[in-house]
Design goal:
The chain is of the alpha+beta class. The chain has two domains: 155 residues, no CATH class; 43 residues, no CATH class. Helices cover 27% and strands 29% of the residues. It is built from four helices and 14 strands. The N and C termini lie far apart (135 Å).
């Protein structure tokens, strides 16, 4: 296995992810364990990772590579044994992710920031190309985290590709969710800037929102008014019958006159 003195501790790993290690222009993070999110036995995963190590070290005749790496541990819905691979190409890390049937890999490439200083633009790349990549330029120390972290030399960190969502109240006491996004975050010296924080109120569930029986919007009719309408109808009906009788009488008279 190739020794990587430059990657001997957490601080140098952190400098790589910030883009300030002069000899490292990219990196990848991946594992060969649990293909397609199917949990395998510890022995099966050891064999798969050993095969990945051999491939990275150039011992695989079918795939010509020659990369050093650092073993790291992660905790993402379970413990994961992964590899931090400096200076790997984007094509190689994605090809390896597909070959070892991983749903995603991490790839970082050095760019120049708005302040003219180097950065690592880090992407969570899905091997299923129908999924959109997640991008950020920062990582966070997560020493108290119990989930979603990578550990190097006893130090935990997290690359915040996803928004952090925490239930709670706002300053007015309204229930909802606090959302923190690092998508547009950046480094300013040793500090992270550009973090976007928003609050999403919960959907109202008060008694006022419960559907109430609909009230009859039609005004109740006055009994006297109804009686009047019946009387009017009867009067009109009698008038119509009388008019019809008159018309029939006229027709009969006309016929008799014609016959005389």
């Amino acid at each position: 296995m190739k020794d990587i003195n430059e990657m001997s501790g957490y601080s140098k790993t952190a400098n790589t992810m910030r883009g300030v290690s002069p000899s490292i222009n990219s990196f990848g993070v991946m594992t060969a364990e649990n293909p397609n999110a199917v949990t395998l036995s510890s022995q099966q995963n050891k064999i798969r990772n050993a095969n990945l190590e051999a491939t990275l070290n150039g011992q695989n005749e079918e795939v010509k590579m020659n990369y050093g790496f650092r073993k790291v541990k992660g905790h993402y819905e379970g413990v994961e044994n992964s590899y931090f691979i400096p200076n790997i190409s984007e094509k190689h890390i994605i090809d390896l992710g597909k070959h070892y049937e991983q749903q995603s890999i991490i790839y970082g490439v050095k760019i120049t920031g708005k302040d003219g200083n180097p950065r690592m633009s880090m992407r969570l790349v899905y091997t299923d190309e129908s999924e959109s990549d997640k991008i950020t330029k920062v990582f966070r120390s997560r020493n108290n985290a119990a989930e979603c972290y990578t550990i190097v030399k006893g130090r935990k960190f997290n690359i915040p590709f996803y928004d952090e969502v925490v239930a709670g109240k706002n300053e007015d006491g309204v229930d909802g969710k606090h959302r923190t996004s690092y998508q547009n975050a950046d480094w300013d010296g040793g500090k992270i800037t550009g973090v976007e924080k928003t609050f999403e109120p919960a959907t109202p569930t008060s008694a006022n929102s419960i559907a109430q029986p609909q009230q009859n919007s039609q005004p109740q009719q006055n009994p006297q008014t109804t009686e009047n309408r019946i009387a009017d109808f009867q009067q009109k009906l009698m008038e119509q019958r009388w008019q019809r009788a008159v018309e029939i009488t006229h027709r009969i008279c006309n016929v008799k006159n014609e016959n005389t």
